[in-house]
Amino acid sequence: MQMARWLGHVAQFSLFLALTGLLLPAEETGRRRISLEEARRLVYILVKEHNRNAEVSRIKDPYDTAFYYFEVIVSNPVASPVIGHYAVNPWNADVWNPASCELVTLPSITRLQERLRKKLRLTEKDYMMFRTKKPQCFGN
């Protein structure tokens, strides 16, 4: 009887560990991600200084479903309304320019990125691991 009770406690504790992500490696537990709206907000903050009326629209990349991709459009009667594309890493809130395959590091988004990373409870090690993940780039 004691053994059955002990095994029951072990099973409950193992379930607790699995549900909280403490039992399995981070990537296997469905690690927390920022939302689509939070990613869109990062891109909007990035472009709003020079393009207050910019429209940030989600686009899907069939070859890279891990990142959030966005197209930025402004009203322009004489040229293309598309002024840029951005990819957001949902695990660490990094913003990339997929045309040049460069990480975008501007003061305008740093504060929100820090808040999002805190919300995700990222350690420095986790952040660096996810920073190595790059979006599908269509430049170079």
Brief write-up:
The protein is built from four helices and five strands; from the N terminus they run ααβββββαα. It is an alpha+beta fold.
Question: What does the model show?
Answer:
Mean pLDDT is 80; it is low at 13-29. Strands 1-2-3-4-5 form a five-stranded antiparallel beta sheet, with helices on one face. α2 runs antiparallel to α3. The chain is 39% helix and 17% strand. It has helices at residues 2-20, 36-48, 107-120, 124-131; strands at residues 55-59, 68-73, 82-88, 95-97, 102-104. The protein starts with a helix and ends in a 9-residue tail after the last helix. 22% of the residues are buried.
Low-pLDDT runs: 13-29
* Helix coverage percent: 25-40%
Please give the radius of gyration in angstroms: 20 Å
What is the number of strand segments? 5
Series of secondary-structure elements, N-terminal to C-terminal: HHEEEEEHH
- Overall 3D geometry? globular
Task: Tell me, rounded to a whole number, the average pLDDT.
Answer: 80
Helical stretch count?
4
Largest beta sheet: strand ordering? 1-2-3-4-5
Strand content: 15-25%
Q: How far is the N terminus from the C terminus?
A: 67 Å
Topology:
Layout: H1 2-20, H2 36-48, E1 55-59, E2 68-73, E3 82-88, E4 95-97, E5 102-104, H3 107-120, H4 124-131
Antiparallel strand pairs: 1-2, 2-3, 3-4, 4-5
Helix pairs in contact: 2-3
